[in-house]
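For the sake of transparency, this paper describes our internal protein records without simplification. The tokens are whole numbers drawn from a learned vocabulary of local backbone shapes. One such record is reproduced below, unchanged from the form in which we store it.

. . .
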Amino acid sequence: MINTSKKMIELPQQLDDLIEEISNIEYDGIHHQWTKADDWLRQIINNEDVAKIIEEQRKIIGLNDKWKLAYFIFALWMKDEPWINVLVFSEKQAQVWDNDFKEIFKKKLLRSKEDIQVIRTLANNPYMMEGLGVTKERIESMVEEVEQEAEADLDLASLYEKPYKQKRDDMYIRQCENNLWVDMTMQLKPSISETKQLDFMTKLMGEFKYDNMHNARKYFKYDKCPQRVRLKKRRQRAWKEYRSSQ
């Protein structure tokens, strides 16, 4: 009897777990939705008038790169459009979460499981191997091929992790906000102080009447202002989550 590797022995359960996980996802046509939303994003932030607004805001805050700011302004502009939340996914996530991909992928996972069972059967039955003319070297080669293919499939499992902690109507806005906090905080030349960041974000959100920030202006210089306190906590949380992910 030929010993198949421990790695391959564990694969069927891992494949079963992944099949079950993707079977519970309910996002029919998500890739098509994502593509349309991304097209809108590109068209809007590259519009001449919008591009001027983005550039003006970039100069105000002193960012070297405009893109995180551009996505945030787009998200604020579209804050009443629920379809923008599909953009919390990356394009690869949208592809693997899509029903068309899921069905093809599940069939592929099942084929990988069947291949493993065939190898196990052959490895455990030397008479069958002899009758079929299958050598030990061929078994070992088959094991390696199946393991590599199955592991490539399992690598996609990370794409099935939800890109949000809980569903919110403003998930994409918050994602863009977090990315902008990190972008501003990471910039060293010129550096952007916490106070400048808070001033800028409160005024920018206020322009779009988001999160009640338009009512914070007259109290803005005081740390007791509830809007400012919220923003300060969100900035700290975004930076902490970013650092822990590195």
In short: The two ends are 46 Å apart (CA to CA). The CA atoms of residues 85 and 167 lie 9 Å apart.
